[in-house]
Fold this sequence. Notes:
By secondary structure, the chain is an alpha+beta fold. The chain has helices at residues 10-17, 78-86, 99-104, 115-119, 183-186, and strands at 21-22, 24-29, 35-40, 43-48, 51-60, 75-76, 88-92, 123-124, 133-134, 139-151, 158-170, 189-191, 197-199. It contains 5 helices and 13 strands. A hairpin with a 2-residue loop joins strand 4 and strand 5. The termini are far apart.
Amino acid sequence: MIVDAKASGAYHWMAATILPRPIAWVATENPNGTANLAPFSFFTGASASPPTCIICVSRTNKPTAEQPQVKGPSRKKDTWANIERTGEYVINVVPDALADAMNATSREVPHGTDEFELAGVTKEPSERVRPPRVAESPVALECRLHKIVEVGNAGDETAIIVGEILLWRIHDDMLLENGRLDPAKLDLVGRMGGNWYSRTRDRFELARPKP
């Protein structure tokens, strides 16, 4: 089977073959001061000096909760618009215990809705940025915008958002005696294709070959 990348359904094949994908549960600040919280699975690290990471946020033309029957022109998703406006955001990791709460924030809701309340999670003040972090998340990355690169056809662009990681907030009980993170305790979920997810409970060790 050969799938032409220019054919319709390319997103399906990307989501079904780029696996598993870590989930960035991104907190930003809305113009009215409420907190936006949304998950994105096109997420990875970019560089270590300075530490930067990438999230990809698309445009949307889905009907809004206020007008469920109206499909309007494409617009930047709130996360994109908020980061572009404020330059600040927090990426929270998603353990299995928070999977349902994370999924609840993927729905379309009225602009300005406080999605921390929608998900039933607790706001915790950040150290260096204005958006709060999810207190229940074991790891939060406070980020400052470095640059936004738009790719895609006009009206259907995706924002590649590159951010500098200012600090990590890590629950102490996630650490080993040597100060490193314990992957077993993190128990994160990853995105698969369709409605499927994976868990990081199934792991194996493979040492890198020596020169």
